[in-house]
Amino acid sequence: MLIAFDSTQQALRAEMLLEYADIEIDLFPTPKEITAGCALSIQFPPDALNEVQDIIRQEQVEIRGIFALNDNQIYVNIED
User: Fold this and answer.
1) N or C: which end of the chain has fewer CB within 10 A?
2) Statement: the pTM of the whole predicted model exceeds 0.85
3) Which InterPro entries does the entry mention (predicted)?
4) How many structural domains compose the chain?
5) How many Å apart are CA 72 and CA 40, to the nearest integer?
6) What's 12's domain CATH number?
């Protein structure tokens, strides 16, 4: 799963918050099929979804969306 952002500032802020919560994350380039204003995304394990969503809401991190790969290996926004 991954989080896409509209700004690098929000991506780096989310990275800090999620690392502080001991969630295993990786920063990597935003996939081409996801339209976002920031070239950075954060990848995290699916079992951390609820905790990630809670942190994003509580800390009011501005995100483009949370995405997961579907059966066709295409990213879909699960926040819709």
Assistant:
1) C
2) yes
3) Se/S_carrier-like
4) 1
5) 23
6) 3.30.70
